[in-house]
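ok trying again, last paste got cut off:
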Amino acid sequence: MLTYSFDSKGKESLYEFLYKSIRNDILSGKLSKQEKLPSKRTLAEHLGISTITVENAYNQLMAEGYIYSRVKSGYYVSPIDSPKVSTAEDTRRYSAEEVSESYKKIKEHFISDSRLSQRKESLVGRLMLHKALEGLGVGEYTVNFSGNEKPVLQSEREIYFNISHSGDYVTLAISDDEVGCDIQEIRPYNPKVAVRHYCENETRLIESSDSKDDMFIRLWALKESILKFTGKGLSGGLSSYDFSPYACQESFTAFGCNFYVKKIENVYFALCHKNAESEIIKKQL
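nice, full thing came through this time. structure:
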């Protein structure tokens, strides 16, 4: 298991320190080519940090070619010798111009390569944001990461956003107030995970459900959406929120927020927001 001490990170963000630590292990040979990395949740729990921090670090490593993702298998060290290395400033933000340029390369480099599916999805998420902002008349912007690793948009307008991806789906939530979203592929119910991260009422609900897998993921997506809303990730405590009273509702208000949850084919999409009205647009990659 990857183990790092964050005591020596100095002024660097958690995500940037983790990204550099893994990158150094790859360059030094400590991590071998094709070696499998721990999942985002496993590494987050092991290091005591949020899944958002790990996700940001993994996305940066994939963007630079150090690692890649295999569909429904996990993350692996790339079989390469000299990947592109970005500056610290590059790793902390991306501009509208950079996203537009990345879009030109998607079909040529990523869509045809299944090993880089996660990298494709990350870029598609950025493209979706770019196109949405373009439609709102926002030309110049940068995306930085706050102290808790939540992406923050800096532009002439106050706009909030959140991106999530799972399998062949990418979702973007954009608002004039704080917002969080999550999308999860339906996978088998795991009682051990439920004991750690679900309330007793939620566990009982799952066990009594006609489809334990569906209810397990439906609740997980709702929990992740509010943690992404707050920017706390797993450190915010999945078990802090009991969604069992609202589990069968598509739209509801709880914990001072508005929620929307929907099953779309083999995934669950969940939205946590402040606005009373929201527009949902679905597109498959």
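cool. Residues 171 and 282 are 8 Å apart (CA to CA). The longest strand covers residues 257-264.
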